[in-house]
Design a protein that fits this description.
It is a single chain. This protein is of the alpha/beta class. It has helices at residues 2-28, 36-45, 47-70, 91-100, 108-113, 123-132, 148-157, 178-185, 210-219, 238-243, 252-258; strands spanning 77-81, 88-89, 118-119, 136-144, 168-171, 189-195, 228-230. Helix content is 49%, strand content 12%. Helix 2 (36-45) packs antiparallel against helix 4.
Length: 263
Amino acid sequence: MKKRKINVTVIILCCTLLISCNQRNIESNEPNNDHLIMAILYQQRSAEYEAICYQSFNLAKQIIDKKIQENKNNKKLAIITDIDETILDNSPYEASLVLNKTSYPVKWKDWTSLAKAKPIPGSQDFLNYAASKGITIFYITNRDTDEKGATIENLKKYDFPFADSIHVMTRDSVSSKEIRRNKVRENYEVILYLGDNLADFNDSYLKTTMDQRHQSAYEQRDSFGTIYIVFPNAMYGEWESAMYNYNYKQNTDSIRRSLLISF
């Protein structure tokens, strides 16, 4: 009788271990987004993030004032700006990924369809100032075409200028923005580019390695703060994709740790 009790106990323990292992496997398939928490909090809660945005738009204003003075031939001037994390804040969506243990693109279009992303600090004032000076604004975004209506609605809600189907240029089939940038440059002199991703400025940063991106930044160092204005985004971007060689199926946490520089 005693031996039978021992056998039953062993069976119960084995079953418990199997259930536990299975649960771990289930949990391991869930995205671990804890690395996003501090990045999201920095964007949502820090005065430093807000100050960087104001600083960037103040510099942008100085640049366009200078360009306007230099425009002796009355050329048509334009600004090309990205949307997400450049003039609209999507950190609530990123927070939902953490809290719901999901990952992009889950419910991304549910979020954009709400048209309630708030403006990045200083973005409205700057773009309306530029528009008041006769500068045309083009919004080149990699949101899909089926998000265009809600995106325009979102921009109009916060009184962004040129929020219409002509000046909001969404992605068709490729992530490169160069074709759309060239279309603007056919009729305008683009005096300023705004973006949180270096690929918002040119394709030398698109689908390239970390080393290549650093080399391009070095070669273009004189463009930053003169024609390119970069906004902080530690939540996502081409910089992160490059770390994983554009393969998110790898153990990304392990890769992040391996790339840390310590003493």
